[in-house]
Amino acid sequence: MKKISLTGIKPTGDLHIGNYFGAIKPALELAKEYDARYFIADYHALNTVKDRKELNSTIRQVAAGWLASGLDPEKVIFYRQSSIPEVFELTTMLMAFTAKGLMNRAHAYKAAVQENSEKGDDTDAGINMGLFTYPVLMAADIIIFDSDVVPVGKDQVQHIEMAQDIAQSVNANYGQQVLKIPQAAVQEDSAVIPGLDGRKMSKSYNNVIPLFAPENTLKKTIMRITTNSQSVEEPKDPDTSQIFQLYKLFADDGEQSALASRYRSGGMGWGEAKEELFRVINRRLSPIREKFDAIIADVPSIDKILAEGAQKARPIAAATVKRFRKAAGID
Ligand code: ADP
Ligand code: TRP
């Protein structure tokens, strides 16, 4: 039997090429080796996104983005967290085994408290219980599907350790393996994709190249990449240029060495380098963009795919809750 992998996707904001290379592409490759499950963590997003329209649309945008990028709902299970009520029942049960002190130590909560105290505000200002108990809901997401591995970035490792802790408390209390202990699969420094200004590409820095923008917007965005004041004639160093770093993601080996030698020999301006970057990015993204446009134009079909995924997921979730309730004497 294949091992189970689980990937949670928080629906926040439009996808960019940093998300694609850093998260989507590696996560989709898991389906070759694992019995892979992917879900949209919409109740997690509710902690921060309070605008009805925004949340409603982002859920579909993100789902369409994954489908356009190659997620095959026939081969994997793809669903919305909010469609699996058993997740929230399990969350309540896990709460009884979660030390409050454990939550006090969670990085995201601690950072919010720290930020408040630096501003001289009440330390709990603006912190809701959803943020405080975030790790318990995340533990339920994972544990409910008997997940073996959870591929995550380094920032999420603490959450997986907390899920292990909580599951172990349950098993220790009942003297049997009621819940499976998940393992984190840490993506070691998957390359950091640089943004328009050379910093890490991120929504928060407003420096992203969107994954699905129309061609003219894509071109305009690429033309905004910041460059130094070197003249056309001057030789340029490809290794310190974010245009070239981005180019490497999209160009084949021959194209890469050709552009590198044009950089080094001088006579090519930044404008021309950006044109060349646009050409290769657009070549790769056009088919994905076309798929995305078709998928997002038909929201009922997206919802149907997610609902069918939930139908496959719910019996698995119900079995875990039933097992736990029985162990707990609430059967
Ligand atoms: P953002 O920084 O734009 O808010 P998120 O934090 O929502 O992006 O990231 C979602 C996923 O995309 C995470 O797994 C994250 O590691 C990955 N990711 C985001 N930006 C980059 C980047 N510039 N390079 C590599 N991976 C990235
Ligand atoms: N916390 C994760 C993030 O911010 C999203 C997430 C929620 C998740 N539940 C999960 C990831 C379960 C993996 C497994 O990216």
Features:
331 residues, mainly alpha, three-stranded parallel sheet, two-stranded parallel sheet, 14 helices, 5 strands, 7% strand, globular, binds adenosine-5'-diphosphate, binds tryptophan
The value of Rg in angstroms is 23 Å
Q: What is the global morphology?
A: globular
Tell me roughly what share of residues is in helical segments: 55-70%
Q: Provide the residue-averaged pLDDT.
A: 96
Q: Report how far the terminal alpha carbons are from each other.
A: 29 Å
Ligands present: adenosine-5'-diphosphate, tryptophan
Strand content: 5-15%
Q: What topology, given as strand order, has the largest sheet?
A: 1-2-3
- Enumerate the spans where pLDDT stays under 50 for 5 or more consecutive residues: none
**Distinct helical segment count:** 14
Per DSSP E runs of 2 or more residues, the count of β-strands stands at 5
Q: Indicate the structural class.
A: mainly alpha
Q: Could you give the order of the helices and strands?
A: EHEHHEHHHHHEHEHHHHH
The major beta sheet can be summarized as: 3 strands, parallel
What does this protein structure show overall?
The protein has 331 residues and is mainly alpha-helical. The protein contains 14 helices and five strands. A three-stranded parallel beta sheet has the order 1-2-3. The longest helix is centred in the C-terminal third of the chain and has 30 residues, at 299-328. The model has no long low-confidence stretch (mean pLDDT 96). Adenosine-5'-diphosphate is lined by residues 12, 18-19, 21-23, 153, 192-193, 200-204.
